[in-house]
Amino acid sequence: MKNPTEGSAEKRPENKMGVMPVHRLLLTMSVPMVIAMLVQALYNVVDSIFVAQIGENALTAVSLAFPLQMLIIGVGVGTGVGVNAFLSKSLGEKNFDAVNKSAMNGIFLAWISCGVFMAVGFSVVEAFFLTQTDTREIIEYGRDYLSVICIFSFGVFNQIMFERLLTSTGKTFYSMISQTVGAVTNIVLDPIMIFGLLGFPRMEVAGAALATVIGQTAGACLALYFNLRKNHEIQLSLRGFRPSFEIIRRIYAIGLPSLLMASLGSVMTYGLNGILISFTATAAAVFGVYFKLQSFVFMPIFGLNNAMVPVLAYNFGARKKERIVKTIKLSLMYAIGIMLLGTAVFHLFTNRLLMMFNATPEMLVIGVPALRIISTHFFFAGFCIVSLSVFQALGNGMASLTVAVSRQLILLLPIAWLLSLTGSVNAIWWTFPVTEFVTLLLCAVFMKRIYVEKIREM
Fold first, then answer.
1. How many C-beta neighbours within 10 Å does residue 126 have?
2. d(CA 275, CA 278)
């Protein structure tokens, strides 16, 4: 790896994250990410729509697979968040040696994570489904799907990491292209591999999984190309690379809370699936459908956050208070606006949304009140999601972790269990608005504390 000298660092121009007007900067960086996330959400929905044509058990199997699939993405994103914030802060400090080393150590961590989940794919997938259901068809569909996702997880881990390197330096347009290419590849391959078109064998849910990993690998390859050819502020080279435990420690000091939050989210989804399937497998399928549909609302917020984190981290490193405050305010305003729009869609077009998934009459009876009740928490969630990313960008990962533990373990699952004692599956859906309102109050407390401790006197 080429280490830039101090003299060369002085000649580098100021990154746009430190000089462009904040409103325009946030839009310029976030719009490509939002578009990419919407395409990703489209893939999530289309994937489940095709799987639903196989049968409700296939859809249920994919829904039950979601906690482990969510954990894979969470580990990748958690590591990426740490690299993103540390790299952008180093860029703001003009410490280009740390920039390069954080990038290479991030790639190393992505490869280690891939090895762990490959081992999971070869060993415990069927046992994972056996803990949730004794319906043999669901277990077999789930095993076929999740084994492929885990064994070939190198695509998703590399895609997330290389895209995070692009966003760390403000090059969100290239990240958008790589995500879009990956998602479109997936969408095109889904029907071909699921139903056996164009000479391919009919692979059903295994085909959906294979289309997913091929799309992720395509996105990863393109993101790597953009980093090598377009991302001149980072120099990637394996020559002489040695893992730096100090840099890894600093990456996970920021990213570990996000990783643990994803783990908690996986535990929450697993636990809630267990509660719902005790009523009927259809309830678990509805919950899976909800998660696919809500991605259209939440993914744009995540895209906004992906743009916001490097902007905050860069200006925190450069000690620019006004830009930090304005970035937070604008991000909250955009997020809440998107969430209000999402709530309206979920209430006005409930039946149409469910019918996209070949909904049975039983699924409509459970699903219509479910989508309407759950979506009432979107407004609160918009504030909370942005707040958690603010905590991470400013180096307060423990605040994010505290909120996540409170939400997922102390509040959500116990409330869901208590509501299940009413004997009504509809009561369980109120878990989300109740939990999210309490979480909002907790986020507001941490946001005020971090402002006082880190921003006000800057």
1. 13
2. 5
What share of the chain in percent tops pLDDT 70?
A: 95
Task: Give the angle subtended at the CA of 102 by the CAs of 98 and 108, to the nearest 5°.
Answer: 150
Structure tokens at 282: 């259809």
CB 146 within 8 A of CB 117: no
- 9 occurs within a structural domain: no
Token output for 298: 């939440």
Q: What is the DSSP letter of 5?
A: P
| Residue entry with tokens 């979601």 | 66
Long-range contacts of 1-7 (CB under 8 A, 24+ apart): 1/100, 1/101, 1/104, 1/235, 1/236, 1/237, 1/239, 1/240, 1/241, 2/100, 2/235, 2/237, 3/97, 3/100, 4/96, 4/97, 4/100, 4/235
Residue 4 pLDDT grade (very low, low, confident, very high; cuts 50, 70, 90): very low
The Cα–Cα gap between 342 and 441 comes to: 22
pLDDT tens for 263-286 read 777 888 889 988 998 898 899 889
The reply to whether 5 falls in a domain is: no
54-68, 90-104, 111-125, 154-168: least confident range: 90-104
pLDDT-derived band at 208, boundaries 50, 70, 90: very high
Q: Are 168 and 255 in contact (CB under 8 A)?
A: no
The answer to whether 224 and 158 have CB atoms below 8 angstroms apart is yes
The verdict on residue 1 lying in a domain is no
Supply the range of the domain harboring residue 281.
18-455
pLDDT, one tens digit per residue, over 394-435 is 877 778 778 888 888 889 999 999 999 999 999 999 999 999
Residue 368 lies in a domain: yes
End-to-end Cα distance, the chain: 35
| Residue position matching structure tokens 């639903």 | 52
Task: Round to whole Å and give the CA distance between 207 and 434.
Answer: 38
From 224, 304, 222, select the one nearest 37 (Cα to Cα).
304
Distance CA 316, CA 255 (A): 17
Q: How many domains does the chain have?
A: 1
Question: Contact, 85 vs 309, CB < 8 A?
Answer: yes
Are residues 301 and 338 in contact, defined by beta-carbon separation less than 8 angstroms? yes
